[in-house]
Amino acid sequence: MKSEPKIVCLGGGIGTVQMLRGLRHYTHSITGIVSMADDGGSGGRLRRLYSIPPPGDLINCLAALSNAEPLLLELLKFRFKGGRWGRDDSLGGHKLGNLILVALTQITGDFNKALTEMQRIFRSHGIILPATNENVSIWAKTVEGRTVRREENIDLGKYPGKREIAEVHLEPEENSSPPEVKQAILDANLVIAGPGDLYTTILPILLARNIQTCLKKTRAKRVFVVNIANKPFETPHYQASEYLTAIRKHLQVFPFQSVLVNSNTKPAIPEKLHYSYVPIDRQNMQAYNCQIITADLVDEEFPLYHDPEKTARKLISLL
């Protein structure tokens, strides 16, 4: 390629981490924009205890882009023994990288400055940015009309009745994004949303007001990556088109020009995980007037995830 493409990844969970791991081999101009709706695990506990944005997904994305020496990278990812959903003031289950970001926030007096310093210290290959200035939360309605609050409860199905989500909402509804987020999307050659948990990772970042606006204005190639497998409680038995339907329902439009879907369903998913491959219903997807791209994208060693190299290669070929 004559020049390095400018790529933006929207999300924050393990799906975004996999994208960053693969795409970093093609460009230094890569920006991970991370949802601030997380309230579970180590990051959620620190969010409540110190009234800061959740650091967990930011640190995971930084680890994917870090050029630090191996021992420093291990420190960044190190997790103390104990349950991730322990007491907020307990050390057990915390990730050291999250704690370092909290410490840097107290040293610098500013979370965004601390995040910038983390990226310098750990020699980030690209840029990691929070999607919103506000410390946002989500709430959802189930198909039975029940209201469920907190990302952790929605994600893990911790509510009574039929555990299937119909819609999700961002609080506060009026929110803003850092100027660097808006500029990254407007300047990008390629903007990627997904893969990731549809209702607790992907839709919360797409519901951010400034991100919606920038997706409409940018000249970038916009691609939505459908999950490899359906997650219990979030997308049970979904076909590929139902991911597109959910996005259009929440945004009133489907803002992506292309949809990338895995076609390799040969690797066996362990039955104990209760996940299943997402079927490709091409005829229903065609109603969204977008380019439908199918390819072998699965990580054969752990077939819930996208293979970073396969997926990055396919995405780069779209430019």
Can you characterise this structure?
This protein is an alpha/beta fold. The protein has a domain at 37-130. It has helices at residues 14-23, 41-50, 56-65, 70-77, 96-108, 111-121, 151-156, 179-187, 198-206, 209-217, 240-251, 282-285, 308-316; strands at residues 7-11, 30-34, 127-130, 137-142, 147-149, 165-171, 190-193, 221-225, 229-230, 258-262, 276-277, 291-295. A seven-stranded parallel sheet has the order 3-2-1-7-8-10-12, sandwiched between helices. It has a three-stranded antiparallel sheet with strand order 5-4-6. Strand 4 and strand 5 form a beta hairpin. Helix 1 packs across helix 13 (308-316), helix 5 (96-108) crosses helix 6 (111-121) and helix 8 (179-187) runs parallel beside helix 10. The protein is globular and about 55 Å long. 46% of the residues are buried. The mean pLDDT is 95.
Average pLDDT reading: 95
Helical content, roughly?
25-40%
Radius of gyration: 19 Å
Q: Could you give the order of strands across the largest sheet? A: 3-2-1-7-8-10-12
The SSE string, one letter per element, is EHEHHHHHEEEHEHEHHEEHEEHEH
The count of β-strands is 12
Number of helices: 13
Assess the beta-strand content as a share of residues. 15-25%
* Terminal residue distance: 10 Å
Low-confidence stretches: none
Oligomer class: single chain
Class per helix and strand makeup: alpha/beta
> What overall form do the CA principal axes indicate?
globular
